[in-house]
Write a structure and sequence with these properties.
Two copies of one chain form a homodimer. By secondary structure, chain A is an alpha+beta fold. Chain A is about 30% helix and about 25% strand. Chain A is built from five helices and six strands; from the N terminus they run H-H-E-H-H-E-E-E-E-E-H. In chain A, strands 1-3-2 form a three-stranded antiparallel β-sheet. At the A-B interface, strand 6 and helix 5 of A face strand 6 of B. Strand 6 of chain A pairs antiparallel with strand 6 of chain B, so a sheet runs across the interface. The structure holds a DNA duplex.
DNA sequence: AATTTAATTGCAACAATGTTGCAATTAAAA
DNA sequence: TTTTAATTGCAACATTGTTGCAATTAAATT
């Protein structure tokens, strides 16, 4: 799958800076959710402040969603098509692999129904599982 | 419900220091999960390092379990009876209230069954919901 | 009750993560 | 090419989490 990052930025009227293009390219290349420290190291040519601000900006624009992996580490992952603006529709389980330490969005499965006790009113919820991922379990 | 903290510490052969007694008393008083910053401020007579080390220690001893609230903030909550050592059996939903910002353990409800795609093997999972809690919804 | 000893504390120092203000730079509109 | 508004990089800082170590203290031992 080849995605034209220039088009993506243009469509949303976002300035195509080197920093942003590099960041998005990194997200499209990796198949897992990226932590700030990892991205910071990968974007060595750019200041960590700019990288961080763009993460937040991309999240607001609906390109990325923020999540916490099973260890509570904040990570960002590419959103699904149906997300726009801050109206995220990333309704899937996140899965952290205890072997490779990567966190994946499991879009294949529907979320279960969650029931709360009387008096509690739910706006949203998240599920983070941990264990061994497909990549690690298929390696001998 | 009155819990004899001295007995609790004795039973586990843990030294009854002022710091630890204050910390546990705070946990028994509050009905929600406590963040490190909150506890640090409440334990103003003791050094933050000691408070933090005891949090980790209590977690290892099976008194407290660590969780991340819906905003990813690390919090600690009292464990259920059946937890001992690091073999935590806190199988319940956590709920963060967007009004009072507190996080509760919802022990009343069973956890749903979680299904993963082929190739993913689950060791554990957590569910964090957010919305309005019982306390806030019952106030007009 | 005094002594011993091993656990615990407080302090200092630090690492990692997240955030702000602002002047200089740059993308893209005019 | 010029203008201008967004973006960047820098410095500085706040918060959260962590380590080493000497001083202190709980409780076991005499």
């Amino acid at each position: 799958m080849i995605i034209d990052l220039n088009k993506l930025l243009e469509r949303h009227h976002i300035r195509k800076t080197e920093c942003r293009k590099e960041m998005l390219a990194y997200f499209y290349k990796k198949k897992y959710a990226i932590s700030f420290p990892e991205l910071e190291k990968a974007m060595h040519l750019h200041d960590r402040t700019s990288v961080f601000r763009n993460l937040v900006y991309f999240e607001e624009m609906g390109f990325l969603h923020k999540l916490n992996d099973s260890e509570g580490i904040a990570k960002y992952a590419l959103c699904e098509e149906k997300c726009f603006g801050h109206l995220h529709k990333d309704e899937h389980i996140h899965f952290t692999c205890t072997n490779c330490n990567n966190t994946f969005c499991l879009k294949e499965k529907k979320l279960p129904e969650i029931k709360l006790p009387k008096g509690f009113f739910m706006e949203s919820f998240s599920i983070v599982a941990k264990g061994i991922c497909l990549g690690c379990s298929s390696k001998k």
